[in-house]
Amino acid sequence: MSLIAMIPARMGSVRIPRKNVRYLGGKPLLAHAVDLAVGSGLFDEVWVNTESELLGELGVSHGAMFHKRPERLATGDAKNHDFTYEFLKAHPCDYVVMVNTTSPLVRPGTLAKLVSLVKSGEFDTVLSVVEEQAESFFDESPVNFGLDEKINSQDIKPISKVIWALTAWRSQPFLELYEAGQTPTFGGKLGLFPIPKDESCDLDTPEDWAIAEGMLLARFAVGEEPRYWQDGTLR
Amino acid sequence: MSLIAMIPARMGSVRIPRKNVRYLGGKPLLAHAVDLAVGSGLFDEVWVNTESELLGELGVSHGAMFHKRPERLATGDAKNHDFTYEFLKAHPCDYVVMVNTTSPLVRPGTLAKLVSLVKSGEFDTVLSVVEEQAESFFDESPVNFGLDEKINSQDIKPISKVIWALTAWRSQPFLELYEAGQTPTFGGKLGLFPIPKDESCDLDTPEDWAIAEGMLLARFAVGEEPRYWQDGTLR
Q1: pTM
Q2: Which of A142, A157, B159, B186 is deepest in the core (most CB within 10 A)?
Q3: Searching chain B, which residue's CA lies closest to the CA of residue A215?
Q4: Cβ contact, residue pair A230, B54, below 8 Å
């Protein structure tokens, strides 16, 4: 079974300008995804899929290969399934795992679990999700709870929110759906893969960037002892 | 119109032990909520609702008053509406705003907006929510999107996730529903109040604590200049 990692990256990000070359916690954003994929040793090939020579060069300097995407597939309007299709035609494989640079907090163990799930062969599409165990409304109506009682948050059935950190597709159905004029993004048998909340940031706005930076910083503080008000005098 | 802030706090938190006296970003967790409510100047009274003398004292030292909750309403099983009812019977008011210590990142401007909404008198219950603009599943079915197309995240209709950072109830219907044996938590005319994502942490697990710490750290870094890979050589 052949497994390829594809890391999409554009230079023309709008809400966080040039985010893929911007430093986050000591290295450029793109390098987080490349290091994760290359460092895992789980893929036959790791490709950065970009229109930008500079991003290609950055990927190569971290051990990935450079798939040069046509400019027409690198605009702000370009659809994910269009550039993924173009990529899969150029790099035949059984499965492709898209590793998004916008989720730089994914830990190696989480990627390894996703790859295991993909390799089980059970699914055609695997989406990474965060499970939100909170009362939620859609269109002002409750989705996962009733208004007539208050249940403990631990007992609420979760909503699974797709975060696009890691997405896997079986190539064959993806290509077939695409060529039949259908959207392959959620195609075939669909699996949801939960990832931990503290790996789930999705860099979209400058606010998200600040949050991700803080979450990275906090990881280094994990070993610190908590301090308490009036410790030792607790009644 | 009389408006009271109630800050519930227990000493016996389980998943994050003694969290209300634990220091977060330079002051004990409880003090964040008290400073927010007292500092706003928007309330006729600000009360810490706790069984603990120590937490009461901490609240008082930051300018709140101490409502001593009966021990039976301070167990892990105690229901929010039970201790809120006991509180409202002791402190008559038109509206109570519950300010939770588990959301220490709420900014003063956000509290002020919520209070304006409450004072409009339009709602009996106001819940703070975070709007999540992401494809979401419940019970493995899509909630706010279709599987046959991929739309841009900006165009996805949001799911509103309740976070209990700030909750407001009109006293009278709350008391009436409670006394009629019904759950008043979502009672009467319900309003959803969106709060910004970077104020929306909900401290439940040690992982959440690390995230909140990170988000607080990130606030102080906002003025820093971004750095870019190979800056000046961009092609």
Answers
A1: 0.91
A2: B159
A3: B214
A4: yes
